Amino acid sequence: MKRALISLSDKSGIVEFAQGLVANDFEIISTGGTQKMLEEAGIKTLAVEEVTNFPEILDGRVKTLNPYIHGGLLGRRDLSEHVATMKKLAISPIDLVCVNLYPFKETITDPSKDFADAIENIDIGGPSMLRSAAKNFNDVTVVVDKADYEKVLDELNNEGNTTLATRKKLAAKAFEHTASYDAMIAHYFAEQLHEVAPEKLTLTYELESEMRYGENSHQPAWFYRDALPKKYAITSAKQLNGKQLSYNNIKDADAALRIAREFEEPTVVALKHMNPCGIGQADNLEKAWDLAYAADPISIFGGIIVLNRPVDVKTAEKMHKLFLEIIIAPSFEPAALEVLKQKKNLRLLELDFSAKDETPAFETVSVMGGLLVQEQDMTLEDLADWTVVTKKAPTKAQEKALLLALKAVKHTKSNAIVIANTERTLGIGAGQPNRIDSTKIAVGHAKEFIDDETVLASDAFFPMDDCVEYAAKNGIKAIIQPGGSIRDEDSIKMADKYGIAMLTTGIRHFRH
């Protein structure tokens, strides 16, 4: 008779699977709660102690770590020496292992659980059995995912055994599972130790979906989510309408959410190709939309929209008039949802904004042969940290405008220049190889709206005074920038020449 060892944390579907194994002449070995469930369902089992001739000890920490278990898993049936050793020591082969692991992930994400709870939910015997079974896939079937129960039973019913190809695939899945499990434990320990740059960086992600294509139609792509999901993230959004998100949609939506996180008042962010094309803030959402739209009514076409308040029907009706790719908000009023759903391809996403200020996450960028890791730029802009370096100081209105511009420029591709007033962005120059070209682009968009409250923000210092002069000649009244250039004094003198205010922050905001 063939033998199967079953030991599960998630027991859903196991009774039917075990019944299928018994129907295929398997004897079942089991442990603890799994054994109890199977016995109550009328499935006869052998306790692990009956196989090992050794009691479970140390509060269950040691029960399957035994030669009668691992010898039965690792013994090769095609090697006469292995077969002879197993026979001499009365070790019976184990032909199938069905194991999933202690709920470590569920434990560390439960706020009621502490470090001691996490440690007790680190599975030792389970991964060991999975690895032993997976290593010996020529002879042993290893099942770690209940989604595979049906396929395994189908092959047993039709072929009398699982195929080698299936066993090999299931073995790979088991190694992926244990690697992910160990990576999560390593990450948890690193967090507990406040270790920001571990010697070995272990990351684990779970496949969310296969994409239609990547950045371009000829590039295959896949979307993976963090094994420990964050609430304020595109991976946690609930899609209410529209077709599947594309690779570029996801990147753009993520960029827009990072910008929206900066604002507390009712705000609308419009984004295109990883850069903001309009940001509007007001005392109500409809007005904020009007301002964001007015910032760049051309570029907003086909854009990504994030609103940090529930969407009302009036705002929805205005957005409905445009072609938009994605709208993200904390919620949608039923009437607003009805209006927006008229466009079947418009992606509507609902997301919890209450967690937008959670602990900053690290972000990674792949390069050929490696990975760059950095903490997100979560600097909180504070007027008290700024230094007025010119003879003229900004007005209160200009200070408010400078804050908006600085929040926007932080999320604009370098070289970045943002021109704004107290309510919205007016012009954005992004991604140019020199700062003066970005300045000219931003001024070109803003020119007809420039007045005494209009300000400019730069993501990095001015290497020379040409940007300051160009801005001043075109009506800009105040400038904010990090400072730190060896030629800062030239820019300050130029600002004084034209009687405009300049402030420095001491913090650069490159975004590559």
Automatic annotation (TrEMBL):
Involved pathway(s): Purine metabolism; IMP biosynthesis via de novo pathway; IMP from 5-formamido-1-(5-phospho-D-ribosyl)imidazole-4-carboxamide: step 1/1; Purine metabolism; IMP biosynthesis via de novo pathway; 5-formamido-1-(5-phospho-D-ribosyl)imidazole-4-carboxamide from 5-amino-1-(5-phospho-D-ribosyl)imidazole-4-carboxamide (10-formyl THF route): step 1/1
UniProt keywords, alphabetically: Hydrolase, Multifunctional enzyme, Purine biosynthesis, Transferase
PROSITE patterns found in the cross-reference section: MGS
Reactions mediated catalytically: IMP + H2O = 5-formamido-1-(5-phospho-D-ribosyl)imidazole-4-carboxamide; (6R)-10-formyltetrahydrofolate + 5-amino-1-(5-phospho-beta-D-ribosyl)imidazole-4-carboxamide = 5-formamido-1-(5-phospho-D-ribosyl)imidazole-4-carboxamide + (6S)-5,6,7,8-tetrahydrofolate
Example GO biological process: 'de novo' IMP biosynthetic process
CDD domains: IMPCH
Domain MGS-like stretches: 1-144
EC id: 2.1.2.3, 3.5.4.10
GO CC terms, sorted: cytosol
The family this protein is said to belong to: Belongs to the PurH family.
Name of protein: Bifunctional purine biosynthesis protein PurH
Species the sequence originates in: Ligilactobacillus murinus DSM 20452 = NBRC 14221
